[in-house]
Structures are given as structure tokens and as C-alpha cells.
Amino acid sequence: MELLFPLLILALLVPMFLGIRRQKKEMQKTAELQDSLQVGDRVMTTAGLHATVVGLDDGTVDLEIAPGVVTTWTRMIVREHLVDDATDEADDDYIDETPDETQRRLNGE
């Protein structure tokens, strides 16, 4: 019976310790990301907004969310650095297509 109580305490403390340690690593990684931001980077915010960094200040970041639309946010809102694919550039070629042209292209005509 004497051994049961220390084992119970240990069983409760170990997961808590591991959780705190994992959370601390994630916070450090997020802080490094926010400190490494540069003008021109594509980022995603905690709300899922995709934007381009157009200005940086000590605690804020200016994000262009649409052509000519710039908003100011706290740096803590940046969650992820996005990597541009070659597919984004390829999709830009078809922006001015009509629906009929798109259908013909997809059908291989």
C-alpha cells in the first residue's frame, strides 16, 4: 500500500511534465519563425489567412492580403511560413480563361 501512492503521483506527473516540455518546444519554434520573417515571405496566420509580408516593425507585421490591401497585425499572429510552388505560377496562366476554354483544356482538346 505504501508503494501505491508514490506510483500514482508519478503516473500523474510524468505526462504533465512531457506535455509542458512539448509545449515549450513549440513556443520556441514559433518565436524563431516570427523573428525570421522578412519582407516578401508568404505566411499563414493563426486564423488561416494567407498573405505576403510587406513591412516589419518591432512587434507588428504588415501583411498584404490582396493586391493593394495591406493590414497591420501583431507578429504573434503568424503561424506558418508558406513555400510557393511552381503550381501557383502555372495556375496564373489560366486565370483569364472562360469556362468553355477551361473545359476544352481539361478534356485535352
Automatic annotation (TrEMBL):
UniProt biased composition (Acidic residues): 88-100
Keywords carried by this UniProt record: Cell membrane, Membrane, Protein transport, Translocation, Transmembrane, Transmembrane helix, Transport
Source taxon at top rank: Bacteria
GO-annotated biological processes: protein transport
Compartment(s) of residence: Cell membrane
Membrane topology: Single-pass membrane protein
Residues spanning the signal sequence: none
GO cellular component terms listed in the entry, alphabetical order: plasma membrane
Positions of the UniProt region annotated as Disordered: 88-109
UniProt cross-references to InterPro entries, sorted A to Z: Preprotein_translocase_YajC (IPR003849)
Keyword field contains Protein transport: yes
Family of this protein: Belongs to the YajC family.
UniProt protein name: Preprotein translocase subunit YajC
Species of provenance: Rhodococcus xishaensis
Gene: yajC
